Structures
1.
Amino acid sequence: MTRDPVPATAALTGPALHEAKRVMRNEVIAARDALTPAQHRSASQAIAARIAALPSFAAAHCILLTLPFRSEWDTRPLIAAAQASGKVVALPRVDGDTRMLDLHAVRDVARDTAPGYRGIHEPAIGLPRVERADIDWVLVPGVAFDVAGRRLGYGGGYYDRLLALLSPRAPRVAGAFDLQVVAAAPAAPHDLIVDVIATETRLFTIPR
């Protein structure tokens, strides 16, 4: 599976693209924050179930998942499903010196993780490292996505740098609330895209 860069949504570059990303990021996060606890819990469960039912998830052996940051959907049921099926679950840890993500195998989320970079729960530094080449399935976090697979992240570039180093054969799957799927996510020509977007009500498969 090969991936080409995504064409810019509206030929935005430089400060205009940066501003468009900032505005959309703030709007979507505000809408996500406004979900009630019941809405958040129900939608998170539906997203996790939709992803767990994917054939690519069932076939994967060593997967990269994430823990939720602030009002992101709750990925912990998906982590539990992966571990119950015998998969190796890797979680990312920020290396502040290199501005890269290190990957560590986690067996017990409550025991093996603690708040780290920006308050995000990360695996303990002493846990076994997982080689990037061993990852065969990736859950990609983000603020907003569109049906062309474009992704708007938080602006740090950590996942852009990481995804470029993972196997191009590893499916890139995003989970998101319906409200995070937008008409067009601002993107630069070099921005990478995801293969699948799963929401609480829909599944988008981006054709290659």
2.
Amino acid sequence: MVALAGQVGGAKLADGLYRLRGDALTVVVNTGDDYEHLGLAFSPDIDTMLYSLAGIASAAAAWEPEGETHSVHAMVKALGGPDRPIHGDRALAAPLLRAEGLMTGRRLTEITLDFCRHLGIAARVLPMSDDRVRTYVLTEHGAVTFQDYFAQLACEPPCAASSTRAQTRRGFRTK
């Protein structure tokens, strides 16, 4: 069984399918909302999926593990760093390891499958692409990444449209 998923709703659906199908499930996860921040590689939809299928997602915020704290974020702010987006301490582990893996030439698929193995997830969780794909929201002030629109601009100003671009070795292509 193959499921296409993204965000918390997709993770909840996949979790229900996982309980029925176990290792017969493959989930292809959105990477259009991925972003870089403070030198780390964030894949929020993949991480939400991993936490959900591993049974460690917070009931209040499924994009973080249960029992999350924000001490690192508080220290980053105290040192003059950005106050948004807010990342939990335990939730920083995946972006740290993902950034290191990508810098050494590993594919996002390999890294994600390793995370599944280490978290005891029998299903296959795959990124929708190993290319760097980003969603842009078109506003009256120009295009901004989805993450900037959501976290930095709090969904203001109103959006006109969105587009997705994938970066390959040859440059950008619009999808």
3.
Amino acid sequence: MSDRRRFGRARRLSLARRCSEIALDATYAGGWAARLAHRFGVHGHLEVDDATITLPRWRARDSLRVAFASDFHAGPTTHPRLLDDACHAIEAVRPQLVLLGGDFVSYHGRHVDALSRRLECIEAPLGKFAVLGNHDLLADDLYIVDALTAAGVQVLVNDVVRLPPPYDGIALCGIDDPVRGEPDPATVFAATGPDDARLVLMHAPQGLLGMPGTPFDAMLCGHTHGGQIALPNGRPIRMPGPRINRRYAHGRFTLPGHGGGTLLVSRGIGCSELPVRLFAAPQVHALTFVPGILRERRTAEAPGGAGGKVTAA
């Protein structure tokens, strides 16, 4: 494993941001704030979102069970019990495939060690794959990648992995973080075949700005935390970054401009600057991906023929 560095390959890493990361790590040292938030019930109670998503271009006969989680933020602002709960929830899905959306740590790469031990215990026959988030790139991303690799998690940086048969029609596209990284969606999608179902894994929804009109079947993101502190109706009080992050703060969306693909944005698990979640509960996603041909068959067989429907985001 590589020696730990204080900072990673983040773009636009100013002196002020460096000082802020060091100061916050020192202020929250020992995790006292996360313990207080957990004790007073403002740290969030984990939810499991169970959803079915159709991959229109996937031509197969069976569905695929996937666990997706993002934004663990292991470190002094996230209580270890929340990480335990999240990993147990992922295991309970009994996934064939585990996908992880980045921001594994806050403030320092060393915090990945406790999380990677938990992730190592999760089994998935088709593998565990991840992309990095902006906080991972602020910290020592090389050390984080080494720790995740040792835990059996393959980190994708502008890379494509094809799943083995009978799921080989799916191209898993891992795109680098659009906030602090060097995303290259053009190269990623050029490596897919014309008949591949594109399942995109990327940390933040603002990455859509760099791929206008590009078709995909489904995209999984995190980053937004659902605002982390929201109004009772779930509307974020504050959402940093471009407007698209507020537009897709959390939930599932159909994107006609991207070939009708489904975008899922997770509220994530942990906390970043503040160890508090209000009306933006942490979540793990239990996803069933359904082939387009299977949906067509069910629609045809439903009462009323073409009028029948299959639940899909």
4.
Amino acid sequence: MGYKNYNSYGFNIIAAFDNDSSKIGSIMNNIEILPIEKLTNMISRMHINIGVITTPAETAQQIANLMISGGIKAIWNFAPVHLKVPENIIIENEQLSQSLGVLTHRLASLSIKS
């Protein structure tokens, strides 16, 4: 939510959701954090096409299901889990652990050559 250049790609974050009552109602980068119970309705009402999942693995599928039931067409998944979605849903999995693995492997290879 803190990355300011999403707008230059035509991607506008308009809402954030959480189930942690200490976060609900707070503002992060001018975006209010709403209760997860409002997710499906907001997706449907505002015709939102892309959802971003940044939850722990154990809750990611549940959130994906809520997004899909609201009408989401694409999911950008940062959770460390493979989501099961219908064929008509576009999913992009960001595997941060794999990227870190590539970096550390390349760094180790560089150290061996030195």
